[in-house]
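Task 17 of the worksheet. Students: predict the tertiary structure of the chain below and write it out as structure tokens. Keep your answer in the requested format; marks are given for formatting as well as content.
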Amino acid sequence: MVLNPLVHFIKTAERIPTRFSVAAMLFMSCFISYMLRVNMSVNILAMVKPSQSNAPRASALVANNHTQPADNTTSIAFSIPAPIDYGPRYNWSSHDQSVILGAYFYGYLLTSLPAGVLAEKFGGRALVGYTLAFSALLTALTPLAASYGLWAIVTNRVMLGVCGGVLYPALHQLVSKWAPPNEKGKFISALMGGTFGTVITWPLVGVLIETLGWSFAFYVPAVLTVIVAFIWFILVADSPSQHPRIKQEEREFIEKALGDAVSKQNLLPPVVKIMTSVPFLALLVLHFGNLWGLYFLITAAPKFMSEVLGFKLAKAGFLAALPYLARAIAAFGFGSIGDYLRKKSLLSVTTIRKSFCLFSHIIPGLFLVGLIFAGFDPYVCVAIITLSLGFNGASTMTNLQNSQDLAPNFAGTLYGIINFVGTTSGFITPMLVAHFTADRSTMDEWQYVFGIGAAAYIIPAFVFILFGSAAVQKWNEPNQKQKDPPKDSRIPETF
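Model answer:
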């Protein structure tokens, strides 16, 4: 009798499409990768000795349960208590902190460019699984690295970035093998697992810091990463034909839906043709603008919430995560709408990509412009940031999916190139914030940062609208004539 529920559960699980399990693991791998990427943005607030310029704000916000508004100016005065003992504190300057926060992206750059080619050559399963496992080790060693000094922790973060840079190009290669055209929006939405990783991580590490100390804000994510890496190797295969448990009906459906757009051979990417393709260059610009806004908020939002808006550390982590929750929810909504429009042939794929730029880039940029004129009400500022990043969830139908359109055979390579260029914003934005907030961290200084962010969103959108495309490019099959994309068959098992 005890076995009956277990048998029933197993039979029910077997009816779930295998590609759903793969999509779920794509989500979890992104979730974990971002957990390891963004935890430093909050942890570093508890790892540094408060400077004289921000001690009246940051230290008191962490230490006290009350605030004492001084006047209606852009700064707030507090008594200066000794910082709470969350663990060892280091004398890292504002510039040092920007180097630490940006270090991840230096490593990320090193592997994001070749990762797509490696995934297309050797498969994404092993590439993602092993880098997740090594990332867990590096994260667990972070407190030790910090004790050895600034450059030890910078090296640790660079190596962690090296592992992280592999992820998205490899996942895009897996999407090209597993996602029928009418389901690509849902698969790309699964890559928003990173957004949920941010949503969970910032409040989680805030609580871990205040209860157990900042070192546990590295240890706990490391353990979770080991668990996800283990499950990844069980559930994921490089393609439907290589999965040991997929049903024949589902495998044949996926392969028929993909048709000839995805080659079964390992092709070398035509680098010259890619780099001289106008639609691809338009995508590159669009992706850069998207990552500028995303990475700016990843690295700077907790600092802005704590030092400017006046929230305690744990609350700052929670409120800074709200925009990412909005982005993740919106991503699934926009992805489903885009798949529906494509399935019903209500709009051409190119029209879908260009029209959704209104939501993914232009509206978020306009919200950042509005933030400049919002005044100093902290909850109004949080609401505007939330709406800005929420609308950016539509990027699942624009820059995050367009590489799949242009060249399914080289989707990983294309995404690796645009991610390589876009990731430069990950270390530029912390330096930009450090430049404007070196002497003071008030709304007056942050207005310049938000204005630059708005331009970085809006200008690339217009470039893509003018020059972008979703047509399969001739160089997708270097040795063959361009083929029309396959018509989708009726789906036997939906998800």
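Marker's comment: Residues 278-308 form the longest helix (31 residues). The CA atoms of residues 365 and 455 lie 7 Å apart.
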